[in-house]
Design brief:
Blueprint: H1 2-23, H2 38-41, H3 44-77, H4 83-116
Helix pairs in contact: 1-3, 1-4, 3-4
Amino acid sequence: MWFAFLIVFVGGIVVAWVGWRGLTGKLPRQHVAGIRTPYTLSSDERWRAVHRHGGPYLVLGGAAAAAAAAALLPFAVAGRLPLAFSVAALIAMAAVTSASAIAGWLLGVAAARRELGD
């Protein structure tokens, strides 16, 4: 079970890193990482605007999931976490990460559309 916490930890770090790169304008428009929708991929200006507004949600969600996984990982490695608690914690961390990605997408696109007048 500890391996699942490790995966969530690494995944949270990756989501936060992608969000930070997008927020700071260092994430180039591409089809691998970031908020990839037809709207964002249609121009560099839209890509930057969406990630500038949606990036904070990705950073916070990824950091929250990584922090929770890091806090529980030593207990999982030691075998001190009950199975039901571990499953519930992993589901909660996945929900936080998913919610932050959805919020980054929806709120980022909405803010970019307002900013760019689309």
